[in-house]
Hints:
It is built from nine helices and 21 strands. It is of the alpha/beta class. The strands form six sheets. A six-stranded mixed sheet has the order 17-15-14-19-20-21. Strand 9 (149-154) and strand 10 form a beta hairpin.
Amino acid sequence: MKPSFNGKKASYSVSSYFVISLSLALLAALAFIAAATASITLASFTAITLVLMLALRLWGGLSLSRLEVGLACDGNRLFCGDIFSLNAKITNRKILPVWMRLELARPEALTPIASEGIDGESSLLPFEKISGSWSFRAEKRGVHCLGPATLTASDLLDLYRKEKILSYKEEVVVYPRLVPIAGIELPFRDYFGIHPSKGIIEDPAWYEGTREYSGNKPAKNIHWKASARLNVLQEKIFEPTSHQKIFFLVDGEGFKRADDRAGFEAALEIAASLASRFAETGASFAMATDRFVKGFPAVLPLGRGPEHLGMVLELLARCDFERGQTLLPLVGGVGHQGAGFVVIARKPGENLKKFYALPATRRDRVMFVFAEEGKSDESGAYPFTTFKALRLQPEAEQ
């Protein structure tokens, strides 16, 4: 029997109400005949059948009692195309065996691919435990709700059913797919301090760890708590700030005007892939979009590291196709600390001059990444690249 995922009743099931009504009508006819003919045998048969029906009714009424269901998802943050599992544990903690069926509501974006150990319905013996898992593939970026689940139980003859809705709901966040991209050379790089020509210097804002005090640094660099804990003088280590600072801007207005949903999804994939690539190099990066973002801020300030990358991917996963806030005032509300801007847009000529009005931003500190090259008289006035140029071809991947 195949598992059920849509919360609807199985079409092959015979209605228990029809069977019960027919049985009661038959018993009533037999009781009338037994009384009319004074047949003890027929009366005994009718009484036994009635007792059996009542016992089955009581059995069915108790079928959900002490029937425990545990559902757990092995991962609710994943990339588009990834596979995750929903694990189920069902325990019958009573002396009565039962028949049960577990149905799970799911969105179309989460496609079932396999079930292991549990096929949606089963019989449970007294005090028996069963477990298994369902596997799903995340086919579409976004935020999807898995559940609720419906548990149906009855006697072993399936004459009297009881049903209840389980409160299980799991929010599955699907990040944009990471695509293989070529390296991108940005025309800007920021150093800490006023005179970067003196060489790479340490940035006190980027604390990295401690080491044994060498005596070559001022006493203010001593980490007194670590020194007391280790009983040896420890000095703070700061990372050099020759790293890049990039502010990614996803301009979705051009995609919305052209009703280009596929292009918008490709833009989010490029944004996620660029952020992931720069995160590997230790760069600081921020992200903002003019699209509506459900349950999450539409702009994230500069940061770095795996945790910050996770927040950026969360923003992109929750990004909607509909318009949210105006992009430039949104960016102006957070500190960008001299970062360069990478603008991801549909094609040239779509209100690109507005990005040169960014606070403290010069023309050489903005780079564009376009879904289409298009035609524009200003195409040589700014650095740009395209999705096609960034994506690695299959031959290049090999």
